[in-house]
Design brief:
Blueprint: E1 12-13, H1 20-28, E2 43-45, H2 49-59, H3 66-79, H4 81-94, H5 99-110, H6 114-127, H7 133-143, H8 146-163, H9 173-189, H10 195-205, H11 220-233, H12 247-255, H13 259-270, H14 287-295, H15 301-313, H16 319-331, H17 337-344, H18 356-366, H19 371-375, E3 382-384, H20 387-394
Parallel strand pairs: 2-3
Antiparallel strand pairs: 1-2
Helix pairs in contact: 2-3, 3-4, 3-5, 4-5, 5-6, 6-7, 7-9, 8-9, 9-10, 11-12, 12-13, 13-14, 13-15, 14-16, 15-16, 16-18, 17-18
Length: about 400
């Protein structure tokens, strides 16, 4: 695995907050000449460097416990994926067994490192439905290859045979978790020979949280299963605090290119479908609409990216505004980066409901090179380099900047 790009931690002196834009042009190679006016001296500073240094120092403390090492490595991944990657590999090489090795392997798998993925494959072989097998399956599906599908297929077939037999008792939580994440993983790895198994699992369980597995280029049979599940779960009398609009099924269908599902999900995201918000003085986000925002991922940007921009820009602001911005960050659509920046700085000095920190992270997630241009619109004496966020972007894990996402999904 190639280490990610590192960033200098030495503060860079520049002349004024108004001239950060000039520096940004230099940074991007688009500077055409001219001169920036001189005034105060803001600085571009790596505000994450002290935290990284403190975590590294603590990792080298004599007598540090395994639990503490795991916690510090978790922190280091979020602060500096490159140095974390080096230390995680060192743990793998020096720790033959145990929870520390397994923890390091999980993070390496999140970062797409083959050594970590191989450990997850071994966990899946040994677990057979327990001991973190479902997390291993999800990681292999998110970052693995067809060779991992070859490992998963017989395991998933055996669990399905045992758990879904006509005379079987209730599906255990462990079996259900492995069936769910295993089906999603197999679908993501896209082996043609696994499609029937994935369809059979989803059709047997018929639960909304399994719908995702049929949203990876499903055939007409998969679409028929999803529409039947949608009809089963749709409740026209649902309330604002109860789910009943079949969002997971509609999202899976939209990923399969179903125009009807795309139209229905668009109305939910806009707030044009579903129950009224109620009589609350403070606007609320109904749970179906909230779920629609929360489930969107990078692969949905081509269909829903423009829509989310329009929702984020709509008036009046409300909880849907924050949710739309967060979803844009998770999706990080590079083609929309310039429009995201323009919208982010359109309400200076601040938005009513959206923090500047969230706006900054969404811009960086879409294109890290726009960070300095973002800050050029604000009068600041210190400008953050956003090195932690840049590192996550380079690691293919920018979704971890935003609350509500899971490290193990690879989204």
């Amino acid at each position: 695995m190639t280490p990610y790009s590192s960033y200098a931690i030495r503060p860079i002196q520049i002349r004024t907050s108004a001239t950060i834009a000039c520096f940004a042009l230099l940074w991007s190679g688009a500077w055409k000449g001219g001169r920036c006016q001189e005034a105060a001296q803001p600085r571009i500073v790596d505000l994450d460097a002290p935290q990284v240094a403190a975590v590294v120092l603590d990792l080298e403390r004599p007598g540090i416990s395994i639990t503490e090492i795991q916690a510090r490595l978790d922190q280091l991944v979020m602060l500096d994926a490159e140095s974390a990657w080096t230390r995680l590999r060192n743990v793998m090489e020096t720790t033959p067994t145990g929870p520390l090795r397994e923890s390091a392997a999980k993070w390496l798998a999140v970062l797409g490192d083959r050594a970590g993925l191989d450990v997850e494959a071994e966990i899946l072989k040994k677990g057979g439905g327990g001991d973190g097998s479902h997390i291993a399956a999800r990681l292999l599906g998110a970052r693995g290859s067809t060779r991992d599908a070859e490992v998963m297929a017989p395991i998933l077939q055996e669990v399905a045979r045992r758990a879904l037999a006509p005379n079987a008792s209730a599906v255990s939580p462990e079996d259900r978790a492995l069936l769910k994440y295993g089906a999603i993983a197999m679908a993501r790895l896209r082996r043609p020979e696994d499609r029937a198994l994935v369809r059979d699992i989803v059709a047997s369980i018929r639960a909304s949280d399994f719908a995702e597995a049929l949203g990876y280029g499903g055939d007409d049979g998969a679409k028929a299963i999803l529409w039947n599940m949608y009809k089963d779960h749709y409740n026209p009398k649902t309330t604002c605090s109860q789910r009943g609009l079949g969002v997971p099924e509609l999202l899976a269908l939209s990923r399969d290119g179903d125009s009807g599902a795309i139209a229905l999900l668009t109305k939910i995201l806009r707030g044009e479908s579903g129950p009224p918000m109620g009589n609350e003085r403070v606007p609320v986000l109904c749970v179906d609409r909230e779920q629609a925002f929360m489930l969107l991922r990078a692969r949905d940007s081509s269909v829903f990216g423009d829509l989310l921009l329009s929702i984020a820009a709509s008036e009046p602001e409300g909880p849907w505004t924050v949710s739309a911005w967060r979803a844009l960050g998770v999706m990080h659509p590079r083609p929309l980066a310039e429009r995201i920046l323009a919208l982010a700085v359109s309400k200076r000095p601040h938005w009513k409901d959206v923090s500047r920190d969230l706006l900054n992270k969404v811009v960086v997630a879409a294109n890290p090179e726009l960070n300095l241009r973002f800050w050029s619109y604000f009068d600041r004496t210190v400008v953050p380099m956003m090195s932690a966020e840049r590192s996550l972007v380079n690691a293919g894990a920018s979704h971890l900047m935003f609350s509500g996402t899971e490290p193990w999904t690879g989204d």
